[in-house]
DNA sequence: GGTATTTATATTGTGTACAATTTAATTGTA
DNA sequence: TACAATTAAATTGTACACAATATAAATACC
């Protein structure tokens, strides 16, 4: 009885625990660079599309301004990016990487592979997992996906 | 180039985003009960195995004492459980649900199903996702799995 | 039996997450 | 063109997570 309340039968719990486990695999690799996982994904987003409003980062990272604003301010202080109010729309703040921010890319190139090597999934399993996660993530309800 | 640094090619990112999305589906259902997601999984663990040391909860939930100690103290204050030093080993603190904590189970019975209905995966897909997540989670490196 | 080591929690400090609210700018509309 | 509604960020407040350290009890070992 109560099978639906068994920890092992939840989908939410392994997701929650697994996400934290993977993040913890990255943490020691970021430490020498003085980065955190959240800062890393902000960089990943910006290395792909730079000079974008805060709202663009919010959408792509599924994070809100309450999380990103202080993070971006800190990254600005550390010289990785600039925050500039848009001339066309004064409500908008544009984020642009500095040379230092762009250069950081070279230093993290092989980190995804190192973490990947710690995860014992076959390429097929990793692909399946990736596909299923995006299927859940891109459902219409939340974040206007 | 730089395919390995594209946000979309990471496994960590959809995991991280998906975990937060699922948690956010639970939050409004917990609100009338005054619960948080983390408290919920502590209850799930205790409804299965009650009267256990803090270390047992740490292992089952993949959380450390820095997270659980303040959480358990708060849940104790709210009358959901008791924290008692073991007589046999004074280092150990045993956690036991009160009647109030046990009774809460009735009020959350259908929440997993409601959340499940929000996730557009077939039973087979959900099973596959569950299996792959546990495969990653139960690898030997971390948490003594 | 006394001391070093290990173990179980607790504490401290830092960094997210996010709900709710605020502020300021822009847009829609009578 | 005033004025309401909307939008983009920022702010405030609460709740985790977790690394690092501290504390105290138990065990190991000489």
Helices and strands in order:
The structure is a homodimer of 145-residue chains.
Chain A: H1 12-30, H2 37-48, E1 52-53, H3 54-61, H4 65-77, E2 81-85, E3 93-97, H5 99-108, H6 111-118, H7 123-137
Helix pairs in contact in A: 1-6
Chain A binds a DNA duplex (30 and 30 nucleotides) through residues 20, 23-24, 27, 36-38, 53-55, 58, 63-71, 74, 89-93.
What descriptors fit this protein?
homodimer, 145 residues, mainly alpha, Arc Repressor Mutant, subunit A, DNA-binding
Report the CATH topology name of one domain in chain A: Arc Repressor Mutant, subunit A
| CATH-scheme architecture of one domain in chain A | Orthogonal Bundle
Quaternary structure type:
homodimer
Shape of chain A: globular
Strand order of the largest sheet of chain A: 1-3-2
CATH class of one domain in chain A: Mainly Alpha
Distance between the termini of chain A: 37 Å
Task: Give a written overview of the molecule.
The structure is a homodimer of 145-residue chains. Chain A is built from 7 helices and 3 strands. The longest helix of chain A has 19 residues. In chain A, β2 and β3 form a beta hairpin. A 3-stranded antiparallel β-sheet of chain A has the order 1-3-2. Chain A is mainly alpha-helical and 145 residues long. Helix content of chain A is 59%, strand content 8%. In chain A, α1 packs across α6. Chains A and B meet through α1, α2, α6 and α7 of A and α1, α2, α6 and α7 of B. The structure holds a DNA duplex (30 and 30 nucleotides).
How would you summarize what this structure contains?
Two copies of one chain form a homodimer. Chain A is mainly alpha-helical and 145 residues long. Chain A contains seven helices and three strands; from the N terminus they run H-H-E-H-H-E-E-H-H-H.
């Amino acid at each position: 009885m109560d099978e639906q309340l068994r920890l092992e039968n939840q989908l939410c719990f392994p997701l929650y625990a697994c996400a934290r486990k993977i993040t913890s695999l990255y943490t020691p690799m970021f430490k020498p660079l003085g980065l955190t996982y959240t800062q890393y994904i902000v960089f990943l987003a910006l290395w792909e599309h730079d000079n974008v409003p805060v709202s663009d980062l919010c959408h792509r990272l599924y994070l809100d301004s309450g999380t990103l604003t202080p993070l971006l301010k800190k990254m600005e202080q550390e010289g990785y990016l600039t925050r500039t109010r848009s001339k066309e729309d004064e409500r908008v703040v544009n984020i642009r990487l500095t040379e230092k921010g762009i250069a950081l890319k070279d230093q993290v190139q092989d980190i995804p592979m190192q973490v990947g090597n710690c995860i014992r999934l076959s390429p097929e399993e990793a692909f399946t997992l990736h596909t299923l996660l995006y299927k859940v993530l891109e459902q219409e309800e939340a974040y206007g996906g």
